[in-house]
Prior knowledge:
The structure is a homodimer. Chain A has about 110 residues and is α+β, with helices and mostly antiparallel strands. The first copy, chain A, has a domain at about 1-75: Winged helix-like DNA-binding domain superfamily/Winged helix DNA-binding domain (Arc Repressor Mutant, subunit A). Helix content of chain A is about 70%, strand content about 15%. Chain A is built from five helices and three strands, in the order H-H-E-H-H-E-E-H. The first copy, chain A, has helices at about 1-15, 20-25, 35-40, 45-60, 80-105; strands spanning about 35, 60-65, 70-75. Chain A has a three-stranded antiparallel sheet. In chain A, strand 2 (about 60-65) and strand 3 (about 70-75) form a beta hairpin. Chains A and B meet through helix 1, helix 2 and helix 5 of A and helix 1, helix 2 and helix 5 of B. Chain A binds a DNA duplex (30 and 30 nucleotides) through helix 3 and helix 4.
Amino acid sequence: MKNELFKLQSEICKTMANPKRLEIIYALKSGERTAGEITESLGVSKANVSQHLAVLKACGVVSTRREGVNIHYKISNPKIIEACALMREVLIEQLEEREKLIKTLKTV
Amino acid sequence: MKNELFKLQSEICKTMANPKRLEIIYALKSGERTAGEITESLGVSKANVSQHLAVLKACGVVSTRREGVNIHYKISNPKIIEACALMREVLIEQLEEREKLIKTLKTV
DNA sequence: GACATAGTTGCAGAGTTACGCAATAATATA
DNA sequence: TATATTATTGCGTAACTCTGCAACTATGTC
Lengths: 108, 108
């Protein structure tokens, strides 16, 4: 069913449609981090980070590995990073376009 | 501000976090289509398609061009298609993983 | 101007998501 | 076993999203 595919794909997008979850993805870009380390770098509550991590895990964006008292999170598929990078490029090109427009308006 | 970037990026993801909007993006993959043509291919109400198109346009994912009574929509940046394709690859790899797992469980 | 066609907008309801707070689970150590 | 640390879960509230329906706007034709 084609509709089913679109729905599943939208779930992945939905997972990445939150600034904190994107920040988590970027924090994991260069390798594994524990939940505690991620919490520290985001500067929000443990509970909140934990919930976002659960969403990311449910969608298969991250995978986990327990080591004693710590749980290590990592990006499960590097293509996710690539997709994020592309979207950021789109964003930056949009911002550049807008900037150009503003400059043009100013000189007229 | 870095947080602002994550927020903007999440807006783009949010725009793509809906099965119908993804279907619209895929319908526009091979070029321009009018709102009516998109409505036909999706098989939902005109009003609903129009609202999804408005969301896509507000986020800069699509751009428009009026020609008489018709409004032509197109993807504004081909990188959006690339990003979608990558996410679909991620999805397909996930599904393949799951399939493998099921096969393993069956043979045991 | 009257009418048809193409598309958009406003609104209300049903449903979903995000976040803080408190409680709980899992592991390690004394 | 008691305690500390790390992380997750449940719950309530506020904010947001999706959709259908009806009303509206814009363009073209008679």
